[in-house]
Each structure stands twice: as structure tokens, then as C-alpha cells.
Write a structure and sequence with these properties.
Blueprint: E1 6-21, E2 26-28, E3 33-34, E4 38-55, E5 63-66, E6 69-71, H1 73-90, E7 96-102, H2 112-128, H3 134-144, E8 156-160, E9 169-172, E10 179-185, H4 195-205, H5 209-228, H6 232-251, H7 262-276, E11 282-285, E12 291-296, H8 300-310, E13 315-319, E14 326-329
Parallel strand pairs: 5-7
Antiparallel strand pairs: 1-4, 1-14, 2-3, 4-7, 4-8, 5-6, 8-9, 10-12, 10-13, 11-12
Helix pairs in contact: 1-2, 2-3, 5-6, 7-8
The chain binds ligand 2P0.
């Protein structure tokens, strides 16, 4: 066979983010415009590093490997459709070779799609010769996976819902807060239902969904006020309540959407006990059974120690706020 030439290449790394005020549901499925604005913390040490090469036209279809495993089917289709957006913007037709490496367990509700599509957006733009601003990168990453628009930025990020492609993007939130999130890995198994499908079912069948949406705006304002006031004691309760409200709406869907395992409930209970003992600790839960505990950087080691004591055998890791998208090279 003929040698395949490389038209352009890029490499980028991004960290996963965990929402403090959640995104759950789309107003526009194709553009990924959410029904609510959301607020997140990008974490250190939960990263995806991705390289993209655009190849000569004779190279055949797009190819994708995740952690050295060749991918087909849904995963490849989703990446190809995303790359089509980049190709269209850049005015190119080239097939791509994509390779990515994760330090995030895949599909376990640890926001692997947030780091994945943020890193892919960065790497693909460099490879295609597109020079986008952070805001444009955020809009692009959003098309791959909603939560990915927040991983363009480090630390706290606010995704304003907007109403169309141009107005739906994330922005960094300035803060001096000393925050940490502790990931309590109840189970590393892949989720039983994708968040995409679960969101759809919640919107279309849960009688509690609209109540959660209505409350969400007030929750966000309260959270932002707490951040401005540097007040973790005010931020924690609204973070926990917003997540529990989202899961209440899921549990009320027909049939129910439940990401809870018995150990998830035990972990929530441990957090309540630790809080009753006077430490700062509030739990949040995403599309998987693993809880994340919001605390201060200063108390993180103590809280992790208390969690390990109460939840023997469970993997518990402290994560500090991490950087946003990093372009590594072309
Ligand atoms: C979030 N989650 O705000 C919420 C909370 C999970 C629970 O964003 O369909 O992978 O690709 O836009 O971003 C998970 O959903 O969904 C998510 P798509 P995504 O972090």
C-alpha cells in the first residue's frame, strides 16, 4: 500500500470536571443546549490526553483508540461526528487517527466524557489548523459532550445555558476558595444506562423534573453568592441538595433511573457522620454510583482519613482543583 501522509497533527490534555450545580437535560439535543446553567470544579489528576492526526484522503475511515484499545461502533461514530464539525469549520475532508489515554475510569460517572471531548476539541483544532478562542473551544467541546465545555477551564467554571450555539458556553469563575473534592470509588464498573439516555427519560417521564429545573436557578445563584463570599459552609449544603434533587427527579422517572448502589448510600451516611463531627463535607453524585465529597483543601486529608475509616476497602482519593485545556503540541 501507498504510504499515508499526515496533513496535520495536534495533541492536548484536559481534566475532568465535577458539577457542583448539575446539568441534567437538553433543550436542544442536536446542539446540546442544556435546560439549566451549571457550575463545576475541574480536578487535578483525572485527565485525558489525546492526539489527532489528519491524514491523506486515501487513508480510509477515521480510526480511534482509547487506552490502546481500537474502538468501533458508538464510540467511533460519536468521535467521527464531532470531527465532522471541526472538518467543516476548517474546510478539510481528511480522515483522522485519534488516540487517547485516560487516568479517569471510563463510563463510571467520573465525568470521563468531559475530559475526553475537551482534549479532543483542543487536539483536533490544532491538527486542523483552527485557531479558536477559549470561548469558541468551549462551544465546540459542548457539541461532543455537554459537560466538556466546562473542562476547557481550570478550577470553577460556569456553563451558561444560553439559547443557541453562540450563547451556550462555559466561563471561568474567579475565586480564592480553598476547595478539594474527594472521589469515593464505590464501583469502577461501566454505568448501566448512559447519561444521555437517562436525561431523555427523566425529562420525558419524571413528574419531578420541572421542579428540579425551577429550583436549579436559585441553587446556582446561592452557590455563586457563597463563592463570592468565600463561604464553604454556605456552598456545601446547596451543592448536596442540588444533586439529591436531580437524583430524586431520576428516581421518579418511569421506569426509574437509579445510579445508586447500597454502598452509595453507606457513603452518603458516612459523609453525614463526618459533618456531624464538625468537619466540612458534603456529597454529590453524578451518573454513576461513586460519590464525590466537597471539602476544603485544608481539611481534605482529615476528611479522607475519616471516610477510609468508615468505608474500609473503598478507594478514596483527594483531588485539588486542576488546570483547564492544555495544548501540548502540534
Ligand atoms: C454534570 N452530568 O453536570 C451532569 C451531572 C452527569 C450528572 O454532564 O449527553 O456526558 O454528552 O451532554 O455531559 C453527564 O452528561 O452528557 C453530565 P451529554 P454528559 O456533570
Amino acid at each position: 500500500p501507498e504510504a499515508v501522509g499526515i496533513v496535520g497533527q495536534g495533541q492536548a490534555q484536559a481534566n475532568a470536571n465535577i458539577a457542583l450545580i448539575k446539568y441534567w437535560g437538553k433543550a436542544d439535543e442536536d446542539l446540546i443546549i442544556p435546560t439549566t446553567s451549571s457550575l463545576s470544579l475541574t480536578l487535578d489528576g483525572l485527565s485525558t490526553r489525546t492526539s489527532v492526526q489528519f491524514l491523506d484522503l486515501n487513508a480510509g475511515p477515521d480510526r480511534l483508540a482509547i487506552d490502546d484499545q481500537p474502538q468501533g461502533g458508538k464510540a467511533l461514530g460519536r468521535v467521527s461526528r464531532f470531527l465532522d464539525l471541526v472538518r467543516r469549520q476548517a474546510g478539510i475532508d481528511a480522515p483522522a487517527l485519534v488516540s487517547s489515554y485516560n487516568t479517569v475510569p471510563y463510563g463510571a460517572g467520573l465525568a470521563s466524557s468531559s475530559s475526553a471531548f475537551a482534549a479532543l476539541a483542543g487536539a483536533a483544532c490544532v491538527a486542523a489548523g483552527l485557531d479558536l478562542s477559549p470561548r469558541e473551544l468551549s462551544r465546540l467541546a459542548r457539541r461532543g459532550s455537554g459537560s466538556a465545555c466546562r473542562s476547557i477551564f481550570g478550577g470553577l467554571a460556569l456553563w451558561q445555558a444560553g439559547q443557541d450555539d453562540a450563547s451556550s458556553y462555559a466561563q471561568p469563575v474567579d475565586s480564592q476558595m480553598d476547595l478539594a473534592l474527594i472521589v469515593v470509588l464505590v464501583s469502577g464498573q461501566e454505568k448501566r444506562i448512559s447519561s444521555r439516555e437517562a436525561m431523555r427519560r427523566t425529562i420525558s417521564t419524571s413528574p419531578l423534573y420541572q421542579a428540579w429545573v425551577d429550583q436549579s436557578q436559585a441553587d446556582l445563584e446561592q452557590a455563586l453568592a457563597a463563592i463570592r463570599a468565600n463561604d464553604l459552609q454556605a456552598l456545601g449544603p446547596v451543592v448536596e441538595a442540588n444533586a439529591l434533587g436531580m437524583h430524586a427527579a431520576m428516581l421518579a422517572a418511569r421506569p426509574a433511573v437509579s445510579y445508586w448502589l447500597p454502598d452509595t448510600l453507606l457513603a452518603f451516611d458516612a459523609v453525614r457522620q463526618i459533618r456531624a463531627d464538625g468537619l466540612s463535607a458534603w456529597a454529590t453524585l453524578d451518573a454513576g454510583p461513586n460519590i464525590k465529597v466537597l471539602t476544603s483543601g485544608q481539611e481534605a486529608a482529615r476528611v479522607a482519613e475519616e471516610l477510609r475509616r468508615r468505608l474500609p476497602g473503598v478507594n478514596i482519593q483527594v483531588h485539588k482543583p486542576g488546570p483547564g485545556l492544555q495544548i501540548i503540541g502540534s
